[in-house]
Amino acid sequence: VSETSGTWIYAVVPPGDPESLGSGILAGVRGVAGEQVRILAGAAVAAVVGTVDLAQFGEESLQRRLADLDWLELAARAHHEVIAAVAEAGPALPWRFATVYRGDERVAGLLGDRGAELATTLRRLADSTEWGVKAYLEDEPADPGAGDGAGGAGGAADGADGEPDPASGPPERPGTAYLFRRRARMSAREDLSRRAQAGADEIHAVLADLADAALLYAPQDQQLSGRTGLMVLNASYLVPHSRGDDFAAAVAELADEYPVLQLELTGPWPPYSFIEPDRPAGSPEAGP
Amino acid sequence: VTFDRILAAPGPPARTAPTVLRPQEQTRIALVDLLDRLLAGGVVIAGEVTISVADVDLVHVSLRALITSVRDGMFPTVPGWPRP
């Protein structure tokens, strides 16, 4: 391996029969650089890797390219597709996206030093898979009056701190009536959001109970998700294969039980979110 | 068990339970779901690593800056890999 080449790691798999994996499931699987993905065998585990050009995948250029959303999407999907291909064939530990080593020797050293630990994690996750559950509050409360800003006569009083004077009694002037309506709408909306969040907490508790581990992600950026509704749950659950059907059924039941929320189930995912052992259910993921 | 599958595709709001889709109905994984996991999950081993985007926040920050300035229609599908 020349100094201009790096080794990108996709996943770690059990050491058995890496050649059949290489000639079978990995045949034709291309990595983030369009490279043929291959297997680096170790004693305790084997790594699924690809050779990348450090001129493009060196730290500086990689950081720059990660800010290019189109490039990021292609690379992220390529990374995932390699992992998904090997995970479909058997247990696999996904590697953190955009991790490059200075050549195969470094990876071999890593497999030697940390192989036992990685093999333990592989065994822990071998019989489980990850499911994602998201919940949205899509509905806005019905708006009986005119929309904000269409208040006409109330325009002059229309301010964020334009509370009606309680001493003025029942609303008589159009502007005051507008403010009362507006306040009622805001209060209804806040109440709905609060109930939606409470519902999401209950849903998470039920699902975490069915799972071996659970993780809360930060709500997704609306522009990235393309969703307008308020996201009140973005979670992942580690579920044994044997309980997968029960888990999906529970999500369906919860969707019926909480009609105000729209639930989405994604997966099964390779166990990206559960590499760290004993992640307590419900521990929040630090998010921006 | 197959991976790279989405069971409930994002779509118009519908108060229906998630439905298991058949393979031919399976939709593309949402990038945002993928990024949640790829940027925060997976094995991270320090030491031997020469490059690791450990600073997930940094990526998110640049993502946000990017998407707010770029466009409304998110993520045109770009078939095929590799590309130049």
What's the SSE blueprint?
The complex is a heterodimer of chains A (288) and B (84).
Chain A: E1 5-13, H1 18-23, E2 38-41, E3 46-53, H2 54-57, H3 59-66, H4 69-89, E4 93-94, E5 99-101, H5 104-125, E6 128-137, H6 174-210, E7 213-216, H7 222-225, E8 230-240, H8 244-257, E9 261-269, E10 283-284
Helix pairs in contact in A: 6-8
Chain B: H1 31-40, E1 51-52, H2 56-70
Notes on the protein architecture:
- The complex is a heterodimer of chains A (288) and B (84).
- By secondary structure, chain A is an alpha+beta fold.
- Chain A contains eight helices and ten strands.
- In chain A, strands 1, 2, 3, 4 and 5 form a five-stranded antiparallel sheet that branches.
- In chain A, helix 6 packs antiparallel against helix 8.
- The C terminus of chain A is likely disordered.
- By secondary structure, chain B is mostly helical.
- Helix content of chain B is 30%, strand content 2%.
- Chain B is built from two helices and one strand.
- At the A-B interface, helix 3, helix 4, strand 4, strand 5 and helix 5 of A face helix 1, strand 1 and helix 2 of B.
Short note summarizing the structure:
Chain A is 40% helix and 22% strand. Chain A is elongated, with a radius of gyration of 26 Å.
Mind summarizing the main beta sheet of chain B? Answer: none
Q: What is the mean predicted local confidence, pLDDT of chain B?
A: 51
Largest interface: A-B, 90 and 56 residues
Total strands of chain A: the figure is 10
- Rg of chain A, nearest Å: 26 Å
Rg measurement of chain B, Å: 17 Å
**Overall 3D shape of chain A:** elongated
Strand element count of chain B: 1
Form type of chain B: extended
Descriptors:
heterodimer, A: 288 residues, alpha+beta, 8 helices, 10 strands, 40% helix, 22% strand, elongated, disordered C terminus, B: 84 residues, mainly alpha, 2 helices, extended, disordered N terminus
